[in-house]
Queue: 2 jobs
Job 1
Amino acid sequence: MAIDYAERIPNNVHLSGNRRLQRALEQWQPGFQSWWAEMGPAGFQAREVYLRTATSVDAHGWATFGFVKMPEYRWGIFLADAVSDRKIAFGDHKGEPVWQEVPGEYRGALRRLIVTQGDTEPASVEQQRQLGATSPSLYDLRNLFQVNVEEARHLWAMAYLLHACFGRDGREEADALLLRRSGNADNPRILGAFNEQTPDWLSFLMFTFFTDRDGKYQLASLAESGFDPLSRTCRFMLTEEAHHMFVGETGIGRVVQRTCELMKLHDTDEVGRFGGIDLKLIQKYLNFHYSVSLDLFGAELSTNAANYFSMGLKGRFNEESRDDDHQLKHASYRITQIDDNRIVQKDQPALLALNETLRDAYIADCARGLSRWNKVIKAAGIDFELRLPHRGFHRAIGACATVKLTPEGRLITEAEWAAHHSQWLPTTDERQFVGSLMIGVTEPGKFAGWIAPPARGINHQPLDFEYVKL
Ligand code: BYC
C-alpha cells in the first residue's frame, strides 16, 4: 500500500481505518516531538537539511531527496509489503502460517524483544546529540542528521507495534521509550553500548560501523519472525540501516586514507601534530567499539535466545537459506568458553548458542569492512594492519566478562590488565586529543584536516553542494 502523507501520521498501514489506534498514536506523537526537541540534534533544528524520506516502500520510492527542517520530517509507519501465504520458517511452529495477531502465550517475550529493539533507536539519537557543532563537513553533517531522523523513525516503527498489538501495557512501554535516557544513572537505556558516550566524530563513525551493524543482524533476525507485523517492519528498517553502515564504513575509510596521506607527506607514523589521527589510535577506538558492540549479542549460551527461536519469534541471520532442520533440537555449535582459567572451544546445544551464531556472522561481516580499510593502507605502501581484537577482549557480557584478555586473546591477570589496558583502549588524553581535532567545518566542499573527502556526494550531488543550509 502507498504511503499516505496527507495524514497527520504518514503510514502505509491504513491507520485511518482504525480510529482507536490512530487516536492512541496521535496521543503519543506530541511526546515524541517533545523528546526530539529535547534530545534530538542540538542546534540546526531550524535549518533545511537535504534528507531522504520514503514515499513508498518499493525500490522507486523509498529514497526521495529534498530539503526539510528536521522537526518537520515526516516520521511515520512503513511496513514492507506482505509476502502472501508466508509460513513460519523455524522453531516449534515451523510450517504454520505466520501470525498477524500476537500469540497469547508468547506475548511477554515478544513485547520484550520489541521494547529492547525500540529502546536502542532513541538512545543512539541521544548519544549523537552534540555532534552537529563539530561536523567535519556539510556532507557529514547531513549524513549525521539522516541517521538521526531515521533512527527516530525506527522508534516510530516499534512504538507502532506496541500500540497496535499490545493494548495498555504496549502503550505504557511506548511511553517509557520516550522517558529512558542514554547514560542516565536513574533511568538508563536497556543495553550497555547505548549508555556509552559518542563524544566525537571518530566515535560516531565507529558506532555507525560497529553498533549499527549489530542493528543489521538483530533486525535481520527479527525480520525472520513468525509474527508478521514485526517481520515486515524490520524488513523495511533494514533498507534504511544500510546507509548508516555506509556512513561508518566509508567514514573510517576516509579517516584512514587521510592518516596515510599525512604519514607519507611528513614521513612519520605520528601524524597527531599534523592534525591527523594515528593508525594506532584508530585501532584503539576500533577495539573499544567492537568489544562493546559484541556485548550487544548477549551471552554465548542463552535460554532467552533458545526460547525466542523455538517460539518462532526471532530467527537466525538468513534463516530461510540455511540448510538444516530449522529447529535445532539435536544440533550442536562450537563456542568459546572459559574453563579452569583457560580459553577453550566446546560444542554446545545449537539452540542455546544462537546469540553466538549471530555474533559469528557479525564478526565475519566486520572483518570484511576492515579488509577494505587495510587495502587503503596497503595501497599507500604502509606496513600496518588494522585488526579485530579477540572476541573475549574487553567484554562485559558473556563468558569472558569475568576474565581479562589481551587483544590477541591471551588470558591475563587483573594486575596485567591494569598495567596495560591503556595500550589497547583510548586513554583520557587520547580522547581529549581526538576531541581537540573536532572543529566544525561548514563551508560547502571543505573538509576537516583529519578526514579525506568522500569519493562522491549524496544522490549524485557534487561534494560542494550545500547539504545543510546554514
Ligand atoms: N547490555 O540471555 P542473555 C540497533 C541481559 S542495535 C545489557 O544472553 P538475551 C541499533 C539480558 O537482557 C540492535 N544487558 O540475553 C544500532 C538478560 O537479562 P535478564 C538492538 C544485556 O536476551 C545502532 C541477561 O543479560 N536489537 O538496532 O539472549 C543505532 C542475560 O543475557 C546485554 C536487539 O538487541 C547488554 N548488551 O540477548 C540504533 C534485538 N546483553 O533476562 C539502533 C532484541 C544481554 O537476565 N534483543 N543482557 O534480565 C534481543 O534479541 C536480546 O535482548 C539481546 C540479549 C540479544 C540483546
Job 2
Amino acid sequence: MKTFLNILYTSNGSTATITINRPEKLNALNRETLKELQSALTLAQNDGDIRAVILTGSGDKAFVAGADISEFANFDAHHGSELAQKGQDEVMNFIENFNKPVIAAINGYALGGGLELAMAAHIRIASENAKMGLPEVSLGVIPGYGGTQRLAQLVGKGHALEMICSAVPISADKALRLGLVNEVVAQENLLETAEKLAQKISGNSPVAIKYAIQAINAGFEIDKNGFQEEIRLFGACFETADFKEGTSAFLEKRKAQFQGK
Ligand code: COA
C-alpha cells in the first residue's frame, strides 16, 4: 500500500483501488487531493501488472461531495478558468483517456466535482444509497470539470439540463434508469462487485482494451472520426503479441496469458 495524505492506494496484483480519504469533509476534492489523485493514477498507469482501477470514497456516506468549496469561494474569473482547466487536464481527461479501464464505485454522495469524477471514469457502479447531482448553479457557478459535456453525453441533453438547472440530486435507481450508472448494488456488495468486474477485465488483452477505450473516446472528439480510429486501431491489433496469444490460445483450446504487448 502506498500512502498519501488524502488518498489510499492498494493493489491486489491486477487491480489498483484508489480511495479518496477525507471522510470528515465528505471526500471533497481540494487541491492536495487532486494532486495526489493524479499521482496515484500515474502509479497505476505505470504498473504493468495493473489491468484495471477502482475509484471510490472513504466512509459510507460519500463518494465525493464535490470540489472543495472553501478553496474557490474568493476566486475571480481568471482563477476560476484556471481551476477548471487544471482539473480537466490533469485529472478528468487523464481518467477518460486512461490506458486501463477505470471503474467508479459510487458509495454515497457524488455531487459536483464528485459526479464529474465518476463520469470521467469508464464504468460506474453505485450503491443503493448513492445520490448523484451537479448542484453548482445553487452556488452561482456551472460545472467546471467537464460536467456539462459528459452528463449530456451519458443521459442526453434534456435530462442533463434538468439535473444541472434544478441542482436536484437523483437517486441511484433513477441514475440507473437514465444510464448514468451501469449497475446498482447494496452498499456492502459495492466493492466486491467492482472487484469482480475488474477481475473479468484482467483476463482480457490489455492492448486491445486500451485501443477500445481510444476508439470509443474518438467518437466523442470533435476533430476525430471514430470509425476511422476504429479501423486504424483494429489494424494495429494485428501487430501485437496479445493478438497472437489470444488467437493461438483459442485454437489450442487453452486460456490466453496476455502480456499487454
Ligand atoms: N466542499 C467543502 N466542504 C464540504 C463539501 C464541499 N463540496 N461538502 C461537504 N463538505 C464538508 C462540510 O462543510 C462539513 O464540514 P464541517 O464539518 O467542517 O462543517 C463536512 O463536509 C460534512 O458535511 P455536512 O454538510 O455537515 O454533511 P450533511 O450530511 O449535513 O450534508 C451534503 C451532506 C453533501 C448534502 C452537504 O455537505 C453539501 O451540500 N455539500 C456540498 C455539495 C456541493 O454543492 N457540491 C458541489 C460543489 S461545486
